[in-house]
Amino acid sequence: MEYHVQGIELGNAVFTEFAGNLENYREMKEKVIDMGAGWERFTWITQGTPTSYDAVFGPVVEKLKKKCGIKYDKKFFLKYAKISGKVNLDEYADLKVVLEKIASQLGISVEELRKNIEQLQAIYSIADHTRALVFAIADGGLPSNVAGGYNLRVILRRALSFIDKFNWNLGIEDVADWHISYLKKMFPELEERKEEIEKVLQAEINKYKNTKERVGRIIQSFAGRKISEEELITLYDSEGITPEQLGIEVSSDFYSKVTERHMAEKKEEEKVLLDVSNLPKTKILYYDDVLKFKAKVLKVSGNFVVLDQTSFYPTSGGQEHDTGYISGLKVVDVFKLHSVIVHQLESCNLKEGQFVDCEVDKKRREILKRHHDAIHIISGAARKILGYHVHQHGAEKTEEKARIDITHFESLSEEEEEKIEDLANKIVEKSLPIKKYVMKRGEAERKYGFGIYAGGYIPSRVLRIVEIPGFDVEACGGLHGDNTKDVGFIKILKTKRIADGLVRIEIKAGEVALDYMKEKERILKEVAEKLGVKEENVPEAV
After folding, report:
1. Sheet of 462-468, strand order
2. Phi then psi for 250, rounded to 5 degrees?
3. How confident is the model at residue 265, as a pLDDT?
4. What is the crossing angle of helices 172-183 and 110-138, to 10°?
5. What values do phi and psi take at 335, rounded to 5?
6. 483 and 377 in one domain?
7. Is residue 122 within 8 Å of 162, Cβ to Cβ?
8. Are residues 393 and 490 in the same domain?
9. Residue 10 has what pLDDT?
10. CA 72, CA 128: separation in Å to the nearest integer?
11. Percent of the chain with pLDDT over 70
């Protein structure tokens, strides 16, 4: 069901009752009423402006017109809007044909039409793209070549290309500030994160400017030749060169194609080592920190063993698996296939139906728990120091060390590293409780927001929440201690920018960190003795 006013769809309602197709369908157990309404369209139609941009963006569009020196013929644009609004762009492959059709109905040439609308279209795009960036960055988004961050980079660079095209003395950060000033009463978080928004935008603008000279040379190499859409997409994806910079008109869905191309990922097929389809779900004991237990062998296939219950943690969420022994046989790997946990033994003589005594390696378990706790603490510290845009993009916790990959727009300075490490160790010293509890997804999202997915989205109706009160909260299925004091000293080993918009932080925690520091001290002492200087004078003597 749709509802319209003078041909403009304001909203719709979809009543979903059946699943399947017209020939083969079934009634759904849970029926859905999907209501949708274009709120900005309501604003537009009640104000009677030529476009929704004029109604929705308030003073921002007017400031853009004034700043860019655009003369606005409202009477002409009303006529243009009525005609262009009826055009279905999906029916046209060539935008030139559309412009010719509209120009003909207006009784003017295509050149005159372009002169009247192109600059206005540009400032509408700049206003729209900048507002999207403001909200996205305030919510923790970051322009990059990674995942959804690529969408943000696309719209920012498109906005910047319009400014370049018309040689306007206009800063995107100023437009962002106008949006924040206009919207802050309704969205106070924009004002709260204003400094961070400006910092992220400026860093991205600098990247854009730094590539302009190189881009200019590439553009010159294409002078005088026809460029295919495939080449245009490749140029944009790899070099950030827009069709506008090349003076080429493209189809209205060009930027959608660019984004879809970039976002497409090949799905790896799950490697199934054995068939567990007929086995029951493994009963989990590791959340109760059980180290010794008895179990029944349900399946044996080579060196792979499935038990009815287990306290061996499988590799998951970046945390390495437990090791230990099953009836004296060494466990070398543990992984999950669907809801069944599989143990790989060094060698195996077990029989199905046999009862076995199992023991988890306590030392390894404790180190992995400390490293996992430390990663949560470092994640929270990085967000406090660097900004709300910091999210975990990946992590690994091993017996030797741990690492976390965070979203950030530049490499970390030595000062930032020190601040993150200092704050992390202050959290350890505060002896804060590490709470773990299970919550329904909706309840958890309402209470904590979508920030709980900092470690990645978890496709489950029930979430296990790990919280350090007042500091960090995440949905996490890993193993954790009960108090930050148990983590011990946290040492950042190094940080490095591993990809555009991604920074890796490597750490050690607890005894592993102390052993590392002792070894560093031993080496320093040895070098000082060989150089015949005091330890503090080694840098000068080298």
Report:
1. 435-440, 462-468, 472-475
2. -125, 170
3. 46
4. 70
5. -145, 170
6. yes
7. yes
8. yes
9. 83
10. 18
11. 90
Contact (Cβ atoms closer than 8 angstroms) between residue 114 and residue 40 = no
Q: Is residue 350 part of a domain?
A: yes
Identity at 320, one-letter amino acid code: E
CA 75 and chain centroid, separation: 44
Beta strand 8-20 with 2-5: parallel, antiparallel or unpaired? antiparallel
Q: What is the CATH number of the domain that holds 492?
A: 3.30.980.10
**DSSP letter at 482?**
S
Contact (CB, 8 A) for 423 and 385 = yes
Position 514 scores a pLDDT of: 94
Instruction: Using the predicted structure, report yes or no on whether residue 255 has a pLDDT greater than 90.
Output: no
Q: Band the pLDDT of 44: cuts 50, 70, 90.
A: confident
Structural domain including 29 reads 1-37
Residue 252 in domain: no
- Give the residues across from 472 on adjacent strands: 468
- Of 360, 385, 416, the residue at which a domain comes to its end is 360
Rounded-to-integer distance, Cα 36 and Cα 13, Å: 6
**Model pLDDT, residue 50:** 79
How many residues appear in the chain? 542
**Whole-angstrom distance, CA of residue 45 vs CA of residue 493:** 58
Closest C-alpha among 294, 292, 285, 293 to residue 314: 285
332 and 376 fall within a common domain? no
The model's pLDDT over 54-77, given as tens digits with 9 standing for 90+, comes to 889 989 999 999 999 988 888 888
CA Rg, the chain, in Å? 30
**Together in a domain, 504 and 374:** yes
Reference 307, options 362, 366, 351; nearest CA is 351
pTM: 0.74
Residue with tokens 């900092």: 454
CB 50 within 8 A of CB 78: yes
Token representation of residue 422:
């200092």
> What is the count of structural domains for the chain?
3
pLDDT digits (tens, 9 = 90+) for 181-227: 999 999 999 999 999 999 999 999 988 887 766 666 776 776 667 77
